[in-house]
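Quick start: load a record and inspect it. Here is DNA repair protein RadA:
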Amino acid sequence: MTKSTRTRTTYRCSECGWETAKWVGRCGECQAWGSVAEAASVAPAGRTALAAVTSPAVPIGQVPVEDAAFRSSGIPELDRVLGGGLVPGAAILLAGEPGVGKSTLLLEVAAQTARTRHRTLYVTGEESASQVRLRADRTHAIHDELYLAAETDLGAVLTHIEEVRPTLLVVDSVQTISASGVEGVPGGVTQVREVAAALVRMAKTRNITTVLVGHVTKDGSIAGPRVLEHVVDVVLHFEGDRNSRFRMVRAMKNRFGPVDEVGCFDLSSEGITAVTDPTGLFVEHHSTQVPGTCVAVTMEGRRPLLAEVQALVTPTAAERPRRTTSGVDSSRLSMVLAVLQQHCGIRLHNHDVFVSTVGGAKLVDPASDLAIAVAVAGACFDVAAPAGVVAMGEIGLAGELRRVRDLPQRLAEASRLGFRVAVVPGERGPSKSRSPESWTVDGMRVLDVQDVASALRLLRLTKGD
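Running the structure step on this input writes:
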């Protein structure tokens, strides 16, 4: 060892790549137990010498932007999430649970790109070439400009890129590719870091749009080192329920567009298709009004979606009544039930409460609190809410209703789908009366209420009505 270098011992987490100077039993980044092990590294000593620049610095206004123009992926919903489409030289990471449809989606993107006369290279490390061909036959993704290679060695993948010279590169998945001469097993922290860095470097130098498929851990986070999310330009998360055909793509990071957009898809045996109007999937059409139901207007990114909440309340003799949810946060339901009992006089301490959404929708928006309260109150008193009503508003612990964001967009979406009455939080202040105020927007009557008790009285969902 020369005098210009020195060896220092560090400890690295095998799950996320977090490093520390001393051994600890629990990772300080991902909180995993027993994953920190010794890893020797060589750190250079002394100052870094000057080196030649690749290109001179120029005023930012003189930097050409034509090479970074968006190109459509052929799937409108994916373009919506990406901010306009695929950018040449961009590195995109798509993560999701096994079987959610990542490979099907990217095979469709590769086929659509090939149909626009842009050469595409699809590298698979998890399946054989014949298995991917079977899927392509089923989804009609066969094209002469779509090249397929089954490789697990990084050097071989780079050779394919040199020979094919694609416009779009898809690697499925980054955890299955290994770099020779690098310690660790494929999918390990060191291997994933080296493979991702080499592919991103190739994407930047050759102006190739690169899409990497990533695995997720049991808690839903992206597997591998966190540096993987930092080196790429876009991080997309593909999610969906196995019991439903509905899938959603969320942007967790995007250097070329917004990060609050979502794309909706329908996954079937014939492939994956974009769903431009997914609201109808989450609302049940009843021939008569049913007690224990209410429609909420939630925001998925910048898109308003209507989702129906259903509740069932049954007496129980158990010491601890059941609180079962599907598509609704259980802690959020517990808070709503406590407010109903404390401020609305609805006694639920000796009742089992079941709350679910229609179509597998997941309600994480606090604005759905009022719809949950209306559904539970209607189920408790066996009274149906008036027809054509939507309810939105965040419930506070004092029983008040808090204003929600993007109210005009929510009301416009509800009006477009035929709803005629909306119950929303009103302005609070000493000059405001307790009686609800009403106004009209797009043919819909909007009722402003101050608290959840006033909303239930207005909808005749209180005891004795």
